[in-house]
Amino acid sequence: MRAWLQSNISYLTGTAEPVYGAEAIQPVTATVQGVNPYHTLTEDDSRWSTPSNSHVETQIFYIRPRNSNLMCFVQLIHSNLGSWTTTAQSTCRIFDLDNPENDLWTSTNLDQFSFENNRTCFRAANISIDLEGDSTYRIRSSVNMDSIIDIVVHQESPPFKIGETGTSNYGTDPTKPWASMKHVFWPRIRVEGNIVARGNVVDVSGTGLFIHALQNGKPQHLASSWEFALLQNPRYTGVMMQFKTPPSYGSTIVNVGGLVTKDKVVAVTVDNTIEHVDVKTDPETEWPEPTRIAYDWVGKDAETYQKPVHLSVDATLGRRLQRINVLSEIPTWLRGFVHNVSGTKPFIYQYFTPVTFKLNIDGEEIEEEATLFNETTFIS
């Protein structure tokens, strides 16, 4: 998320949009009211969109190694600033949950990049992300000597998207949207391989999550805040993604999620809620930083769409892994200009917490232990 926003920092000096109202967004959640939101992916969903207009597109692999207490992610971001420039950037993050001093972050601009094999594969100098078949990615990267990546990612549970397209559209004419937001999920992946982090070989074989997302428009015009949750234990994986639009689109909340096991999709859910139960004002940013969050996945089973499904987590957040100032890598004078002109001061808060969740399927309830990785992002 950090690189996603930073790669488009030029957008932040733009002026605010007119107030179109909530009727100018067609949330993907509205397209599946009363029907099963679960849809599997098509061949097109595996392709990079790379539209010619302004956009930000990303593939991100979240990884929880089985043999070490780490949380990792590998990400590729492609952005097009309209007539200005097109960029690609790779990032790698390793959180050492026992020894924070060993945390690793690398972010590298890429040269000579292209999309191949009908836009299912990305290539650049010293990096490749190749889709092999329809359920495996091979990632090799030596663009940064502090994070040399060689991993294979296998789809473990079935993938999903919300509705037929997985897309929320923006515009006063629904037949001619001027912007869009799309997410597709491989909610449970099996990872094999390693990352050479500052010369040390780190075995990152384990489980995780893959998301391919497209913001087809200027990011700060599409969302004013984000929430993300990844809940994992040996049996279940839950994922939730929420964004709130700026007032120009009625401060509309769009929340999508899903619950899977190793071999099936239990439920895809769109009536989810997120509550910041307790917050504290961060004196450095003045944002209301959450200290306790409640997540509720609410829907029906994916197979028959008859059985109610409710997954709930209410947790006091554990270690704050990082507070990311998205503007931190631009000059101080420009940072103030961006904030004064556009009213944006984007920060990302990331946490990792052991939790207990409750899962109720058709009246039968269980409780299990899990880990929660979550993000709260404030933009404007």
UniProtKB/TrEMBL annotation:
Q: Which GO terms describe its biological process?
A: response to oxidative stress
Question: Where does it primarily localize?
Answer: cytoplasm
Give GO cellular component annotations, separated by semicolons.
cytoplasm
Report TM segments: none
Boundaries of every Svf1-like C-terminal domain copy: 218-380
Keywords attached to this entry: Cytoplasm
Q: Which family does it belong to?
A: Belongs to the SVF1 family.
Q: Which residues form the signal peptide?
A: none
User: Where is it localised?
Assistant: Cytoplasm
Protein's recorded name: Svf1 family protein Svf1
Q: Domain named Svf1-like N-terminal: which ranges?
A: 56-215
Is Lipid metabolism found in the keyword set? no
